[in-house]
Amino acid sequence: MADIVHGVEEALRTVKHMAWIDTTRIGVIGHSYGGYMVNALVARTHEFRAAVAVSGLSDLAHDAMTRVSYGTDWVYAGQPRMELPIQVAPERYVNNSPVMFLDSVTTPLLLIHGVLDYTADIVHAEEMFQRLASRHKIVRLERYRYGEHENDDFLDRAWADALDWFDTYLQHDARGGRWGGAE
C-alpha cells in the first residue's frame, strides 16, 4: 500500500507543475485491484477531491483467511504481493488494509459493488462504508443486486454513477470556492 501511495504522490507532484491541469479538482477511479488502490489512496493521502472504488478490496486479512475465487494464496502471491502467508506475517496484512487507516480520510468516496461479485466480495465495500460513515465521512455505497465483477451492464452503470459523483465533487462552486455538499 505504501508503494502505491508513493508512486501516485510522485506522479501528482509532476502533474502539479503543468499549468493546464487544475490540481484542485483531481479525482481517482479504479476497478477490482484498481478499486483497492483507490481505497488505499483515500486512506493514506489527501490529494484527491473525489474518489470511486468499483469492486475494490479493503481488508487483505479478510481475503487471506476467506478468499474463495482465487484461493487464499492469491493475497500473498498475486497482485497484493504480501509474499508471506497471514499466519507468518499478520502485521503486513493489517498495514496494507485500507480499512485500518480511515480516521483522517477527507476525500468523498463512492463505493460501487455488485452483490453477485464472487471475485471481490461485497463485504469489502460494506466494511469501508460502515467505518467511514461511523466517522461522519462523505461516503456512499451503491450495491448493484445483479452486479458481477466484470459484467458489461454492471460496469456501464458503475461508470455512469462515477461520472455523476465526479460532477458533484469536482465542480467548483462559484459562491465561495466550496465543493459539492455532503451525502
Give a written overview of the molecule.
The protein is of the alpha/beta class. It has a domain at 2-9 and 25-59 and 97-170: Rossmann fold (3-Layer(aba) Sandwich). 41% of the residues lie in helices and 12% in strands. It has helices at 2-15, 33-44, 60-66, 73-77, 90-95, 123-134, 152-170, and strands spanning 27-31, 50-54, 109-114, 139-144. Helix 2 (33-44) links the parallel strand 1 (27-31) and strand 2 (50-54). Helix 1 packs across helix 2. The chain is globular.
Number of strands: 4
Query: Judging from the principal axes of the Cα atoms, what is the shape?
Result: globular
Order of strands across the main sheet:
1-2-3-4
Radius of gyration: 16 Å
Reading off the top of the CATH hierarchy, the class of the domain at 2-9 and 25-59 and 97-170 is best stated as Alpha Beta
| Separate helix tally | 7
Order of helices and strands: HEHEHHHEHEH
